[in-house]
Design a protein that fits this description.
It is a single chain. The chain has about 160 residues and is an alpha/beta fold. Helices cover about 40% and strands about 20% of the residues. It contains 5 helices and 6 strands; from the N terminus they run ββααββαβαβα. A hairpin with a 7-residue loop joins β3 and β4. α1 crosses α2 and α4 crosses α5.
């Protein structure tokens, strides 16, 4: 499995699936989720809400609407929208996303920074949690995992976490 870190939008990647750092209700209001809904279409949120509630440490799969990927993996980092979260919840969310990807035979997966916006987890802590989950749960079933963000601080944190 290869890990690629890039300063780019999650929504530009032609991967099998992108990870949405969701909330348990499936509502896609702000942050990464809001952009996924805006670009990919409201049907993504409808599919997510229909499968809610989703506990932290679980993940669900929806179609990706008009995004260039095939799927969106919704993995909650918080229960309620705009709720403060923790690096431990980010780790559980990332691990759940990876496990679902493996179960669904997804080979290429892309993560944004998770929990770093309204969740207020510092980028370095979030990057460490995501990379630890990839290193603990990612395996030969995943070909490539992309860690992408438009925030240079998050990209730098991803690079440091991967290099550890």
């Amino acid at each position: 499995m290869k890990i690629v870190v890039e300063n780019k939008s999650l929504l530009e990647l032609k991967v099998d699936a992108v990870v949405n750092p969701a909330n348990s209700s499936g509502k896609m209001g702000g942050g990464v989720a809001g952009v996924i809904k805006k670009v990919g279409g409201a049907q993504i949120e409808k599919e997510a809400v229909a499968q809610a509630p989703v506990a932290i440490g679980e993940a669900i799969l929806t179609k990706a609407g008009s995004l260039p990927c095939k799927w969106v993996i919704h993995s909650p980092t918080m229960e309620k929208p705009a709720e403060k979260t923790t690096a431990e919840k980010v780790f559980r969310a990332a691990a759940a996303a990876i496990e679902l990807a493996k179960k669904k035979n997804i080979k290429t997966l892309a993560f944004p920074g998770m929990g770093t916006g309204v969740g207020r987890v510092p980028p370095e802590e979030a990057a460490k949690a995501i990379v630890d989950a990839i290193k603990n749960f990612g395996d030969k079933m995943l070909d490539t995992v992309y860690l992408v963000d438009l925030n240079e601080e998050m990209v730098s944190a991803f690079k440091k976490a991967v290099a550890r």
